[in-house]
């Protein structure tokens, strides 16, 4: 049985409908591009906004990584949203996603510039506007609610500043903790950030990484890790930095 063939230039079937569909798709694409609604445009604008240089102050761990938050939603967001996760990055430039304001927690409202003391409950809040003004939040790990890899306490950013958002600074030296209770926390020195409700310290895991819109970043949890000497290990080492973050990190030696 012979099969009738056509020259490639011959249009068969619903060629007119297909052509109209392609034209409509191209028109829709160009209109979205003009309005800045393409995914690549949203991503570019979002990254420019959230990575905009903000201040010269950030919170860093021993190895120079800052504790930022990442967006787990689409790039339609123009600010950090309640419920987004927290990861650790090695990007040292302060921006809306890694700068936190240390403010008082509880009935007594702190005055601007007031000194933060060891053992004093505080809340760590992101910047307003792009930062969303969200509090660093954690709660006890359960069978269904825990960090993805280590299965420890999950750390999130929440709009509601409750007791789950209360933290306190603990002196790095175990021998000096009782005598330093209630004294000012010095800047640019190692400290532990302890969660008031669960009594676990904030921790960073170099062995667990997340793929985020900003690259590979480390998992952040609430868990106290002890070494063979029953002292908190490097996972829990943090410091509050004033001035140049690079200089403060460089000044730390492994034995300090």
Automatic annotation (TrEMBL):
Gene3D superfamilies: 2.80.10.50
Database matches in Pfam families: CFAP161
GO terms for biological process, alphabetical: cilium assembly
Any GO CC annotation of this UniProt entry: motile cilium
Source species of the chain: Geodia barretti (Barrett's horny sponge)
SUPFAM superfamilies from the UniProt entry: MIR domain (SSF82109)
The name this protein goes by in its record: Cilia- and flagella-associated protein 161
Region forming the signal peptide: none
Superkingdom in the source lineage: Eukaryota
